[in-house]
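Students often ask why we bother predicting the structure of a whole assembly rather than each chain alone. The short answer is interfaces. A chain on its own may look different once its partners are present, and contacts between molecules only exist in the joint model. In this exercise we take two input lines together and write out one structure for the complete complex. Read the inputs first and try to guess which parts will touch.
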Amino acid sequence: MSDTATGDERVKEMSGFRKALIRPELGGIVGTVAVFTFFLLFAADSGMFNAQGIMNWSTVSAQFMIIAVGACMLMIAGEFDLSVGSMIGFAGMSIAIFSVTLGWPVWMAILTTFALCISIGALNGYIVIKTGLPSFIVTLAALFILRGFTIFFPQTIERRTIIGGIDDAAEGDWLAPIFGGEIGQPIFVWLADLGLIDVFERGNRAGEPVIDGIPMLIVWAIALVIFGHIVLTRTRFGNWIFAAGGDAQAARYVGVPVNRVKILMFMFTAFCATVFATCQVMEFGSAGADRGVLKEFEAIIAVVIGGALLTGGYGSVVGAALGALIFGVVQQGLFFAGVESSLFRVFLGVILLFAVILNTYIRRIITGER
Amino acid sequence: MATGRAPIVEMKNIEKHFGSVIALNGVTVEVYPGECHCLLGDNGAGKSTFIKTMSGVHKPTRGEIFFEGKPMQFDDPRDAIAAGIATVYQDLAMIPLMSVSRNFFMGNEPLRRIGPIRLFDHDHANRVTMEEMKKMGINLRGPDQAVGTLSGGERQTVAIARAVHFGAKVLILDEPTSALGVRQTANVLATVDKVRKKGIAVVFITHNVRHAMAVGDRFTVLNRGTTLGTAQRGQITPEELQDMMAGGQELVALEGSLGGTV
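Now the answer. The structure tokens for the assembled complex follow.
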């Protein structure tokens, strides 16, 4: 910083405070602070911020986070995936059919589903690369194709669109708890003993803490955010993701394997959608043909609130995670505050607009866009 | 400058046909280490096709390429880059949304190991970037400054510095000055001069005779896919070059009526 004094007189010195503020996540940070302030003022005594309430909106936010991480990295690589929602439905149904209808062990059903869905993600990416069509169109086709199959298979095989009994099938399975289980139970028992969290007062669970443990869904969300953030900002591959989305041709000229990067990001997005679906199926014990509808847009909204550029080359996984947190807190917070639930969309639209305006302004300062 | 030394790149009787169109019809050019070889020509003369042949983007239909005395076959640009031929394209040099340091090391990221994990060594990248930029006379606010905040001339300079840092022996500059203002052009030309003094061969493509005369050691004029010969510095006047590029005498009359502004 000191040598700029002798440098170009038109390069203004930036104060440390300003420099700390000017970052891609600022929109997400401001939004998060605003949303929490709002609900602390208007819903503080509604139970939103006791142990159960926190667990409630954390779980919902974690769902958004899991798919937002994939969507974020794919968007930075310059592509979209509109088939995320359909992929969630498809993956859930796939696990149900393999484990319940065909009677496979649940771990085998889960692993096969992961392989199948990641292959579909790779196929999406391959078609986008080979045809040069916008990923918007290719994955829109995938949205319909996958949703169609998700309804067709259970209809044809089982004559219904919801397949249950997965929880029974998963009993004693070694892989299922990694998606549907909970961790940290002793901590909550200990916290309840200390009186820090409530215990059930009546019923057959009287004396047990109101929270069993942290759902694996939240663990997956945190792990994926950390993984995505490190890959994006601290690895060679992360630099290639930015380069592929920033200017694919310029990246190719210096030897970045742009096609490989983009296809891998499609596969990662499919992986995230499958993680979401598996956690959901293990939690509910059933798979429904309508699961995951509109999730692709919710993921994209979270990513955009988090400061990513729709055209690629710019964004942050931490920002996307904050976008998902805003999403979850608003959705559950309005319920706690007793606000008419239809207003959720109004609230979300307003936050989306303000966050994007702020993000665009910040991005112009950082990147010198005009 | 070039006497008594072996050429680093020899392009002999290069022909390139695109279907029925003959883009290059037997072009021969030699490039020596440490010289700035200017390739001049009007739009459509075949300059771009010629340098794309040299940098491995196109394969010549006929003709031979010798690199450091040995015949070379470049199947794609990566081969040429690996051999030491780097090309800086006018508007595809840098990614504006990314930081200078990330751009500088794009495709050549330095790594450091932490156990089994290999991470992008940002400290090393930032330090090298700042040093190289200082040498080239660009003052950055910091290595994380986005390329989009740099001027066109500075972007060209960063791209040139990058090519040189990663061991280019031949640097092809595709119209580096055509979109730049006066002062930025001067900066880029000064950079070319610095690079040449390091012993690197510079192939400078332009259609601006004054820019060519400012730094060129030798001048080759392309016209309609053929070369009109190579001239040493001092053996040719700007007016002669201009005439050769235009391919005839019409421009002389036109130039007269416009008062020498072309």
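Check your guess against this: The radius of gyration of chain B is 19 Å.
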